[in-house]
Amino acid sequence: MDITIVMLNGTSHTLSVHPEDTVGSLKQRIQDRFGVPCEKQKLMFVNGQKTHLSNDVMPISSYGLHPGAKVSLLVIEPPTIQVFVRNEKGKLNTYDIKADETVDNLKRRVQSR
């Protein structure tokens, strides 16, 4: 069956899927086709009410998707966090980091200043 993936910018793309495909496999196909990493995808289907396709192991048919269904794709970015680091001379520096940034990456940024 064909479903339509609707992006926030209004563009839409048709994907052929099987009712027994899982939400996780749908996210993988979206990643392969549109380059949006699975972990940044939030899928929503409106069928009388808003339904979030949140369980990656569930088949898409369990959410009521049908041929011609429109699934909205929201791209979720991790929030930015401000970190304050005082150096050995007492100078305070501010760093904007993402929640998924590693400590090693922050250390490299601090050392490069």
From TrEMBL:
One of its GO terms (biological process) is proteasome-mediated ubiquitin-dependent protein catabolic process. This is Interferon-induced 17 kDa protein. It comes from the Eukaryota. GO terms for cellular component: cytosol; nucleoplasm. The lineage of its organism: Eukaryota, Metazoa, Chordata, Craniata, Vertebrata. One of its GO terms (molecular function) is proteasome binding. CDD domains: Ubl_ubiquitin_like (cd17039). InterPro entries: Ubiquitin-like_dom (IPR000626), Ubiquitin-like_domsf (IPR029071). Residues 1-75, 81-113 form the Ubiquitin-like domain. SMART domains: UBQ. Pfam families: ubiquitin.
